[in-house]
Design goal:
The chain is mainly alpha-helical. Helices cover 74% and strands 1% of the residues. The protein is built from 19 helices and two strands. The chain has a two-stranded parallel sheet with strand order 1-2. Helix 14 runs antiparallel to helix 18. The protein is globular, with a radius of gyration of 22 Å. The C terminus is likely disordered.
Length: 473
């Protein structure tokens, strides 16, 4: 009679997935569906960006109103990133992802049929709730689905982000050529609702709860069963390694245990992932998110030319995002982040010193370098480092806290960029923003932690939970 490997806790689950070493069968479909949620998050953000100019004109929006609209979704994500992490720790990884899709659907419909600024804003509120919950949980779930040697693939979320952004720009251009007129932005934000509905139905049918989360809650039989459903791994529930792992004995991690992220081994990891997440969000949402506006300044007052220009910029983001998985594996997530920050800082200084005084081809190359360096390095790494740096029971909370800090950076970039631009002009704004990647570069050089070079499932414990016996020596 064949003896199957035993599942006695989270470490056994991680070891079996790592030993399997592949993402195949049902696991591949589930992996793609979770990535689909990240696609929706990016698409929903890009939907407003692509239609911002015609919306502003149609609704006669002031600079303050534009800033409020653009900053609303990431502002709500500040709150709902940790809420998503808390929910994922309490009720599992899958339910919050489904809830997020319903919020995204409601937000898209509300904005698309809005008659005034207030209704558009309320739609963005719902999108922000969805964005905050989904990103925190999705990255944690992807980390738990993925064998350790394939951990660099988490960086592919950055390529997905730019694919979504480019896809929305392409659809917006299609609507433009179909003479959608001033309502073009409604088609742009409304199309996000279609993706939200399709993803909700797909995730509802096919997503499988994380075996790691099940094991952390003492549900060892369910964890073993889901290993089989995902990977075809035949495992059996064993006796818990620790009595606290018995079903219902180990308390779920909540906000009161969040302090573990800021002490001991986790402190430098949290600081590193948080600073990378903060700085990459500030630089992207200040510059990258406003590429249509920058394109107008470079290519002239033509919506079609500016949109095509933005699509070309984002094509380099796709290339950099897809390359980031390889770069992160070769250099490590920390050093690839440092290299990206260094290039972005130089580009912003050059953009600031030369904007409006150089040929169009040179003005075009600089944003291309910005997007490529950002997407192949820190743009992808902030969330990936967070997802890979924590044990399973605190992973969702860790990605939620890091996501909250990154969302704060998004708000700062989105709200302050138009304010600084109106006061100083576009060129001087780039010079001010160069401070952001410099702080990221310095942090990456000072903190040496890299999850691709060390395991996250170490002996750090959570307050209120039983610690394993320390190893001898």
């Amino acid at each position: 009679m064949a003896h199957h490997p035993l599942v006695r806790g989270v470490k056994d689950v991680a070891a079996l997935i790592d030993g399997h070493g592949r993402i195949t069968g049902r696991a591949r479909l589930v992996w793609l569906l979770v990535f689909g949620g990240l696609f929706l998050d990016a698409y929903s953000n890009a939907a407003l960006s692509a239609g911002l100019a015609p919306m502003t004109k149609q609704m006669h929006l002031s600079t303050d109103q534009v800033s409020i609209l653009t900053a609303t979704a990431p502002a709500l994500a500040i709150v709902f990133n940790p809420v998503g992490g808390w929910l994922a720790s309490r009720i599992g990884r899958v339910p919050p992802l489904l809830i997020a899709k319903l919020f995204a659907l409601g937000g898209a419909l509300l904005a698309a049929f809005a008659g005034d600024f207030t209704m558009v804003w309320l739609g963005r509120v719902l999108v922000g709730v969805a964005y905050g919950i989904d990103f925190a949980v999705a990255m944690a779930l992807l980390a738990e689905y993925t064998p350790a040697k394939l951990g660099g693939r988490l960086n592919l979320w950055q390529g997905v982000w730019y694919i979504a952004t480019t896809g929305n720009l392409a659809l917006t251009l299609l609507f433009f050529n179909l003479d959608a007129g001033a309502d073009i932005w409604r088609w742009s934000v409304g199309s996000a609702g279609v993706f939200a509905l399709v993803l909700f139905l797909g995730q509802l049918k096919f997503l499988i709860e994380s075996p790691s989360w099940l094991a952390s809650r003492g549900r060892l039989a369910d964890a073993a069963r889901n290993l089989g459903r995902l990977y075809g791994i035949k495992a059996e529930a064993g006796r818990p390694e620790d009595p606290a792992d018995a079903a219902g004995a180990r308390p779920a991690v909540g906000f009161r245990q969040a302090g573990v992220l800021f002490r001991g081994k986790y402190l430098p990891r949290t600081v590193l992932s948080s600073v990378i997440s903060l700085d990459q969000a500030m630089q992207y949402f200040a510059v990258g998110w406003y590429l249509p506006v920058i394109s107008l300044a470079i290519f002239g007052e033509s919506f079609e030319k500016a949109t095509i220009g933005s699509m070309v910029f984002n094509a380099f983001g796709i290339a950099g995002g897809l390359l980031s998985a390889y770069v992160g594996r070769r250099m490590g997530l920390r050093l690839s982040s440092a290299a990206g920050f260094a290039i972005v800082a130089v580009v912003l200084v050059v953009m600031g010193l030369t904007f409006g005084h150089v040929p169009t081809w040179f003005a075009f190359i600089l944003p291309v370098l910005f997007i490529f360096a950002h997407s192949s390095g820190p743009g992808a790494n902030g969330k990936s480092i967070a997802a890979l740096s924590y044990r399973s029971e605190v992973r969702a909370l860790g990605t939620g806290v890091t996501g909250m800090i990154g969302s704060f950076g998004s708000v700062v970039g989105l709200y302050l960029f138009p304010q600084i631009k109106d006061g100083l002009g576009l060129g001087h704004t780039f010079l001010v923003l160069a401070i952001v990647p410099l702080t990221g570069l310095i942090t990456c050089l000072l903190i040496k932690w890299d999850p691709t070079r060390a395991p996250a499932e170490d002996e750090e414990t959570v307050p209120g939970q039983t610690a394993p016996a320390p190893a001898a020596g």
